[in-house]
Design brief:
With about 100 residues, the protein is α+β, with helices and mostly antiparallel strands. The chain is built from three helices and three strands, in the order αββααβ.
């Protein structure tokens, strides 16, 4: 197990303790871990990122891919992640997640 896999496992175990119902799926980085040409860091995962478990796969991801093609880069050359690994949510007055 490499250090990144160990880190992901430890984070997942920590968040599982906080939310045993599984409401906090983590979204880690995607792409080249060792020596990427470029590393891009976003703010936090959105709905599509949370559903697919990868950063920048929704509308922002399509825009990123188009931009990378314009400058001659392939996403496979990069490492893409977010500062926040869990999609931010807020609770309604009734206690449900909005």
């Amino acid at each position: 197990m490499n250090p990144m896999q160990r880190y992901q496992r430890e984070c997942a175990a920590f968040f599982d303790q906080l939310s045993p119902e599984g409401r906090c799926p983590l979204v880690f980085g995607d792409g080249l871990i060792d020596r990427p040409v470029l590393m891009l860091i976003g703010e936090a995962p959105g709905e599509q990122e949370t559903l697919q478990g990868k950063p920048f796969v929704g509308k922002a991801g399509r825009n990123l891919t188009a931009f990378l093609e314009t400058v001659g880069l392939d996403r496979a050359q990069l490492y893409v992640s977010n500062v926040v690994k869990v999609r931010p949510t807020k609770r309604s007055a009734a206690g449900g997640i909005v």
